[in-house]
Amino acid sequence: MGISFLEDAITTGAKVQGVIKQAIHASSDWTHVPVAASTSVATAPVAAGAQSCTVASATGIVVGGCLTFWRAAAINGAATPECRIVTAVNGTTISWADPLTCPQGTYQVGDAIGVGMTVTATTTRGAVMVVDLADAAITAGRMQVGVYNGLSGSTPQNKYTGGGPHVTWKQVLGAATDVVRATVSAGKEHLFVAIEGPRASETNADSTSLGSTKQCFVLCDVNPYYPGQDLAPAFCLIRNSGTSYACNNQNIVVSKDYTGQANWPTGWLESVDRISDNAGSATTFNARGLDGSLVLKPWVVMEDAAGWRGTLTRFFWGGRASVLAAADPIPTVAVGMTETYGGVNYKCIAPQRGVGTQVNRTSIIGDFNNYSATPFAGPLLFVPVP
Q1: Between the CA atoms of 197, 16, 163 and 309, what dihedral angle is there, to the nearest 10 degrees?
Q2: How far from the centroid of its chain's Cα atoms is residue 271's Cα?
Q3: What local confidence, expressed as pLDDT, does residue 280 receive?
Q4: Is there a contact between 355 and 212 (Cβ–Cβ < 8 Å)?
Q5: Nearest 5°: CA angle at 22, between 18 and 23?
Q6: Most buried by CB count within 10 Å: which residue of 31, 58, 215, 305?
C-alpha cells in the first residue's frame, strides 16, 4: 500500500488536472487506464527542462489533454511518472507549459507516454474505483469528473450518471491563468481531491477578504457492518452533483448495493458529533480519550434502501474548527493536526469552503461556515497521509 499526499500545490486552472493526476500516480496503488492509445518518445531523448517532444503517434492527443511520461518502462511500469497538460499539437510534436523534471533521468526514445486522464485502483476488498479527471472540458472555474465502478480491459464500466462529480473553485468563471491550489490524497482504499480558487490577495479572487470557493470529491472503501450479508465490495462516492459553487449536495452514492446487483444506490453519511453547536462560537469539544490520545470519529454509510451499510475505511470526521479558549487545557481539533490510527497516518484539513452570499451552507461533509473570519470554521476531515 502506498499513500500519496499533496497539499495546496499552487498551479493554474489550465494545468490543475495534470498536477492532480501526477499526485495520484505518486501512490503505487493507482494506475493509468489507456482509454486512448498510448504512444512513446520518438526521434530524440527528452531531458529535464523540456517543454516539447516528438512522439511516435499523436492519435488521441489534443490541446488540454494530458500526457504521462514513464522512464525506461511501458505504461504503468515505473515509479514517479510525471504528467503535463498539452498546450499545442503540431503533427507529432507535442508541447506543454511546465518544464519536465525527469525524476528518473532523461526520457529515451521508446519510453512510454500515456494519453488521457483516467486512473484506477482496486480496494483490498475488491471494489474497482475508476476516475476520469476530464469527463468534460475543464472551464476557468470548474472540473467535471467521471466515476465508474468497473473496468473491462481499458474500458471503464458502470458510470455514475446522477450528476457530476463537479469541483468548482470560482463563483464567477475567471481565467485559465488564475492561481488555484490542489490537494490530493490517494491510496488503495481511497481518493481525495480538492481545488481552491484564488485567495484574497490573488487576481480574480471571488472576495478580496475571504478568497474563493473550495470544493472536493471523495472515493472511499466501505467497511461493511454485516460482512456475511454484504455480498459486494463497494466504495462510497462523496461529491457535488451540481455545478453550483455552494457545496450543498447532501447525499452520497455507493458503487454497489449490498447484493451486488444494483449500481449507485443513494444514501447518507452519519457520524458521532455534538447534538448542537454554533460553528461561530468559541466553544470547544474534548476530542481526547482518557489516555490523552485523539479519538477520531468514523463516518457511517447509511444506504437509503439497506440502512446501515458500514464505515468509511480511510476518512474520519473532525467536527468544526473552533476557537480555543486560552484557559482551556484541552486542545481542539484543528487544521494541520496529525494522528496515527490503525497503523495509518492522518492529517486534519478543511476540505471545502464558500464565500460571499454562500457563507453558511450545509453539505454531505457537514455544516460549514466561513463566518467572515479566519481560520476556516469547518467542517474538518482527517485524510490519509504517508
Answers
A1: -100
A2: 21
A3: 45
A4: yes
A5: 115
A6: 215
